[in-house]
Amino acid sequence: MKSAKFIPAVVVSAMAITGTSVLAAGSKDREPVTFQELDANGDGQVTQEEMQAHRNQRFTNADTDGDGQLSLEEMQAAGQKKVNDRVAKMFERHDANKDGFLSEDELPKPRRAGKMFDRIDANNDGAISEQEFADAKEKMGKRHRKGGKADSDDS
Questions:
Q1: Distance separating alpha carbons of residues 44 and 4, to the nearest angstrom
Q2: Which H, E and C letters describe the chain, residue by residue?
Q3: Which of these, 1, 57, 116, 120, could form a disulfide with 136 (CB 3.0-4.6 Å)?
Q4: Is residue 54 within 8 Å of 14, Cβ to Cβ?
Q5: CA angle 116, 82, 75 (to 5 degrees)
Q6: Neighbours of 55 (CB within 10 A)
Q7: Residue 15's pLDDT is what?
Q8: Cβ(14)–Cβ(8) under 8 Å?
Q9: Model confidence band, residue 17 (pLDDT cutoffs 50, 70, 90)
Q10: Domain segments of the chain as ranges
């Protein structure tokens, strides 16, 4: 059934458009919301009301003093909690010998570092010039402003 694949795609698109997280800082590192988290009543469908309820719950969780407003301190605390959770998960995944430390060998290796370097090194001379660095930074900025899609002239 095509709708079984289409519904999650619509939900992901809707989340990206509506910004379900009040606390989102635009980071691609944040954990994606699962369909099950959004489908509060478990009926296999996500309504706009369920999406709004999820957003409201995130706001309520961050509003620790219950005044209906997020202060700088509350947002920092919510952000710090996310960072702490991510670090704990990173240790759990990568501390191979379970000694409570991550050696350089245990740290995750960049998956696309070489490919990224090659893209930035526009003249393929094996080094990145200041101009190539600036050009790549500008191109990346354009992609972020366009929601991850490069301009047609950047292809």
A1: 10
A2: CHHHHHHHHHHHHHHHHHCCCCCCCCCCCCCCCCHHHHCCCCCCCCCHHHHHHHHHHHHHHHCCCCCCCCCHHHHHHHHHHHHHHHHHHHHHHHCCCCCCCCCCCCCCCCCCHHHHHHHHCCCCCCCCCHHHHHHHHHHHHHHHHCCCCCCHHHC
A3: 120
A4: no
A5: 110
A6: 19
A7: 42
A8: no
A9: very low
A10: 2-62, 113-147
- Do 58 and 6 contact (CB within 8 A), yes or no? no
pLDDT per residue over 29-58, tens digit each?
456 788 999 999 999 999 999 999 999 999
- CB neighbour list of residue 75: distance below 8 Å, 6 or more residues apart: 23, 62
The amino acid present at 120, given as its one-letter code, is I
Residue 139 structure tokens? 């191109």
Q: Is the pTM of this model over 0.90?
A: no
104-117 per-position pLDDT tens digit: 889 888 777 788 88
